[in-house]
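Worked example (supplementary).
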Amino acid sequence: MQTQTVDIRNKVVEEDKPWKDFMRSFLRHRSAVIGSVIILFLILIAIIAPVLTPFEYSAKSNDLMQSPSANHWFGTDEMGRDIFTRVIYGARISLWVGFFAVIGSIVLGSLLGLIAGFFGGWRDAVISRIFDILLAFPGILLAIAMVTILGPGINNAMIAIAIINIPTFGRLMRSSVLRIKEEDYVLAAKAMGMKNGRILFHHILPNCWTPIMVQGTLSFATAVIEAAALGFLGLGAQPPEPEWGTMLADSRPFIQTAPWTMIFPGLAIVLTVLGFNLLGDGLRDIFDPRMKQ
Amino acid sequence: MFWGVPMGQSILDISTLELHFFTEKGVIKAIDGVDLKVGEGEIVGLVGESGCGKSVTSLAVMGLIPTPPGKIVGGSIRFSGQEITHWTNKQMRKIRGKDISMIFQEPMTSLNPLFTIGDQLVEAIRVHKKCSKKEAQSLSLAILEKVGIKRVGILKQYPHQLSGGMRQRVMIAMAMVLEPRLLIADEPTTALDVTIQAQILDLMRSLNREFGTSILLITHDLGVVAEMCDRIVVMYAGQVVEEADGRKLFKNPSHPYTQGLLKSIPKLDENQKRLYSIPGQVPHPLNMPQGCRFAPRCEYVMETCWNKKPDLYEIEQEHLSRCWLHQGKEAIENGKGDADTT
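After joint prediction of all chains, the assembly is encoded as:
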């Protein structure tokens, strides 16, 4: 071989691993950090809920409608249940529902979007029309209809929320795939004799993740609101489940006499949604190459 | 009918290939009767302007023309004696990357940004070869060394950490690692600095010698083909217009288009006021001239040229040209046009 060898052994470029790079820009982004602190805090209290609370979330007592005190930090409701306990256990339900609803819609939506974008033709036409139909209804209305069919309950609410969010992820994925599949490295992969499945899942999908991740975080917030809304309407979690939306609904008659029965579950919802929105916005900025210094 | 490589020895044999794109506006005849042969161990240059069909030809060989809208409507592509025009995608996949490899114009975007060089090389190997990850990695290092990259930790680096020239070397390594019989290089040096261009061309030539890989080099740069190629095929508007070995083509270009191309190369030693360019534009694919496709831009255009399509004509041994100028009066009179040489 007469090839001239490019030997730059002596100056091996020290560059950071991609995740290190990501962590640096993440820590520099204030709202992303605040958002993730809130979320981590919520996850933590959801996990250690039994340790934090001296009461059972469904335990009734004779202290009805007590205002906040040293014994009952957030007061008690009309059945004498400790609201602090119920709000904390409520975090379990909301995070659980939000997580699985979002994972469900990401998996199904991405898969459909991937197929529609990659193969095109009739598959694209069929899948895109399904998305259009789902988007034609207001989300919460569709969820109500679905829960009515499936029967009320927290799991059915979760399924309904997952389904109404499918088109969001599906369309996002489809548009990313349409862009990525024209990239040279996809053509190069084809020219290397790779199968469609491998190209799809190994070369196209990983390059489409970023917007899905951002949207997933933001959708987590909406999923929490939607779960609370269904609970409020009596279609989500059933009593005595300590679901925030259900608690709000139960407190309606006492807004003026015992405002703490609604203030604390309401604040919990606000805090959760705020956390995920801050994190989602932060991630969007961090992943946006135009924001990189 | 062709000279040069005897039948048995040609690795790629394209004959009267016709490939059309069926679009809403009409049928675009992207390739219109192209004949092209690449012999065992030969380096063939395919030259032409953008849009003349050279890249489409190479994608057709790989079976990577998107269908629809593209479709091969006639002719044949034979790869080491086997007709591959009607092969299924599954059959083609088995030879892609293993027997025929391809490298592309843009090294900056031809590697997946999310995976390391090592991952991508190992993947390319393991698509066709059953071996452990370790074996694939050592194979990768060996081929990287062959293409001139001896860099500690190269396998763990990401594409964005390499320069354009280095990436093109990696692409060549990926294409060559399974020792294919034919390498199609689609403008491999267009996106690179001139200094790097020479290195990459050197590399391809030495790989050609070492592995005996035939190379189909697609380019619009006549300087590149002059340096590299055993034989040169000039394409214009979906047709081959001239074919000769390198020296003959440069010494005695016979087709007016080739002459124009050669004249268009700026020369350092001449004091030109203006750079030469071939007048006019490539005809629109939906609106091809009736006769010779180059007629509207040709300075020697005759009556015949407008009416009658010229065939490839052997003007001397191993030198073909698609031009009425070189064919005898007889041939022109056999055509229907009035033959007035101007």
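Two points are worth noting when inspecting this output. The domain at 7-99+180-334 of chain B is CATH 3.40.50.300 (Rossmann fold). The first helix of chain B runs from residue 54 to 62.
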